[in-house]
Amino acid sequence: LHPASEDIASSPSLASLRARAIDCRMCELCGPATRTVSGEGNPKARIIFVGEQPGDQEDLQGRPFVGPAGQMFDRALREAGGHRADTWITNAVKHFKFIPRGNRRIHQKPDASDVTACAPWLAAERRVLAPGVTVMLGVTAASAVLGRPVTVSRERSRHIPLEDGSIGLVTVHPSYLLRLPDEESKTREYTKFVTDLRMAISALA
Ligand code: URA
Ligand code: SF4
Questions:
Q1: Model ipTM?
Q2: Would you place residue 200 in the very low, low, confident or very high pLDDT band (cuts 50, 70, 90)?
Q3: What residues line ligand 1, using a CB cutoff of 6 Å?
Q4: β-strand pairing of 160-161 with 167-171
Q5: CATH topology of domain 4-202
Q6: Are 89 and 131 in contact (CB under 8 A)?
Q7: Where are the domains of the chain?
Q8: How far is the CA of 160 from the centre of ligand 1 (A)?
Q9: pLDDT category, 4, cuts 50, 70, 90?
């Protein structure tokens, strides 16, 4: 374990975690990225949404889910009856992983070792927040939270008991919806996504 991870594990608040994460150098992803993108939201939230990693816009603005996938997420959350202001939103990996191509930066999926390196931050975030419900957006988030390989299609759309007694729910990543080729599948998959978010929110009642 990296020496810093004890420090992370003993961090008493979300604010102190954010402050400590600014200078994190526990893996190589901090090199090319602009900044750490920590989780944000309501420190009293009872529901946490976990994504994959910051994208281009998130890296530039320093906030999670503010780019195209974030807009898709916000819309679906509203449609499911949720309010972003009542939630906590974060990522499995806190630095943007990309390869430069011309003046564009092409997103690279974080691999298992990236997720493992960054895991102390997510674990500490979830320990401090102690949410009743953890929503895993896509395969990277799901394997980060569940600590094992996950097939999203097999495990989505149901309440999964987590080790600490709280509830987990796996669904797709909103960027999956953006990549679908035709309107028909977009509409169908968006509806399923909203249904999953509703199921997650209903677990709070
Ligand atoms: N995709 C993610 O997984 N997280 C973000 O913050 C933005 C896009
Ligand atoms: Fe630290 Fe995570 Fe960034 Fe790696 S990706 S440097 S572990 S914050």
A1: 0.96
A2: very high
A3: 51-55, 58, 64-65, 67, 69-70, 91, 175
A4: antiparallel
A5: Uracil-DNA Glycosylase, subunit E (3.40.470)
A6: no
A7: 4-202
A8: 23
A9: confident
